[in-house]
């Protein structure tokens, strides 16, 4: 059996965590041969609820769950952590955009970035789920100057998976038939779910669906899916968000399938003309625990304008939290 790894999860008594923790402990994220120690962080009023979640985790008798710690102090929860899933943040309600949460949530990520910098494993991998996820990840990263900036990522895998599901349904295919989907930019209503490179059973997706459907139905449906779920459920997506977080970390660690890629919010290196340092979602392949942006994809005029619109929004979000970016 391998040596256990330490996985810190924030917002551990919340909705997403209620799905996420059980799947991590079952081995869905890091493999069925990788024991995990869960280091759970909550705020003081939620510590009782967190104890209940921990009791349930215990009651599952997961063979891979090698230990658990519960804390309301980031420096305890992040100590020696190999992975940190930063979920804890306020969710939006009906009628809000995710960036409306910036004021409420940004401070959390500045504090947690500093704590990660001080106590986490130097090889940590961080996934930010709490909204607005891209800018929160940027804040956390900039407050952790001693950690590799590339260790900080934000979640657009849910959008990526949503886009695959919509295209599969439209073409009467299985989700596994769809490859090379891309979500560019921000996890927000300006994101650009792009099918220009996608294939369905090996055939070019743009040849299989009407352009009108792509522009007027597919793109808005994916962009607005989070809001549609809030309207229907009265609460934001939780199990699907947890499942995408599992997918994100699993593929980062174990690699993407040959011939395919995934979308991840990562610090831009200037590829595709996106401002360096912005936390922007790109198509990436993963090998040996490292991600690389897929290069040299053709970008037409429509795609360029969509990619720039979401970049502009990310610049505005970043400029709005300049006081939290050392
Ligand atoms: P929730 O309100 O059910 O749970 C959030 C938990 O975080 C609460 O238990 C709260 O006590 C805790 N928390 C708050 N501040 C904290 C802090 N400083 N440290 C540790 N814990 C803290 O919300 P949820 O449904 O689990 O959603 C969590 C976040 O994830 C929201 O911001 C939501 O918008 C976001 N989200 C992102 C995606 C995505 O695709 N990136 C998808 C779904 C939800
Ligand atoms: C989602 O995409 O479902 C989440 O970001 C929650 C939200 O606010 O839409």
TrEMBL record:
Residue ranges constituting the Lactate/malate dehydrogenase N-terminal domain according to the UniProt record: 5-150
Pfam families the UniProt entry points to: Ldh_1_C (PF02866), Ldh_1_N (PF00056)
Biological process (GO), any one: tricarboxylic acid cycle
Gene3D superfamilies to which the protein is assigned, alphabetical: Lactate dehydrogenase/glycoside hydrolase, family 4, C-terminal, NAD(P)-binding Rossmann-like Domain
Residue span, Lactate/malate dehydrogenase C-terminal domain: 156-321
PROSITE patterns: MDH (PS00068)
Binding locations of NAD(+): 11-17, 105, 112, 129-131
Catalytic function, reaction form: (S)-malate + NAD(+) = oxaloacetate + NADH + H(+)
Binding site for substrate: 92, 98, 131, 162
EC category name: oxidoreductase
InterPro entries: L-lactate/malate_DH, Lactate/malate_DH_C, Lactate/malate_DH_N, Lactate_DH/Glyco_Ohase_4_C, Malate_DH_AS, Malate_DH_type2, NAD(P)-bd_dom_sf
Residues of the active site: 187 (proton acceptor)
Keywords: NAD, Oxidoreductase, Tricarboxylic acid cycle
UniProt-listed Enzyme Commission number(s): 1.1.1.37
GO MF annotation list: L-malate dehydrogenase (NAD+) activity
Similarity-based family: Belongs to the LDH/MDH superfamily. MDH type 2 family.
Its biological purpose: Catalyzes the reversible oxidation of malate to oxaloacetate.
PANTHER family: MALATE DEHYDROGENASE
Protein name: Malate dehydrogenase
Natural source organism: Thioalkalivibrio denitrificans
